[in-house]
Fold this protein.
Amino acid sequence: MDPDTITAAVVLGIISWTLVLFPIARAFARRVDRGGSTHKVPSEVTQRLERMEQAIDSIALEIERISEGQRFTTRLLADRPGQQELAPPGGQSTNRS
C-alpha cells in the first residue's frame, strides 16, 4: 500500500471516531455536571425507613441482652464446684457389682 493511502485512512478514521465519540463524551459530561438524576424520596418512605431503623436497633439490643444472659449462665454452670461427673440419664449408676 501507498504511504499516502495509509495516512489518508488513518486521518479519516481519527476524524470519524472524533465525530462519533465527541457528542457522547459531551453528553456524559453534562450529565455529570447536573449531578445525575436526583430523585426525591417521598416522606412516607423516609418515615417508614426511620421506623424500621428503630425496630432493628431494638432487636439488636434484645439480642445483646439474650447473649449476655447466655454468657452469664454458661459462666455459672462452668464454675459449679463438684459437678465434674454428671450421672447418666435415668438415675442409673455406672457401678455394677
Observations:
- Helices lie at 3-34, 43-78.
- The two ends are 109 Å apart (CA to CA).
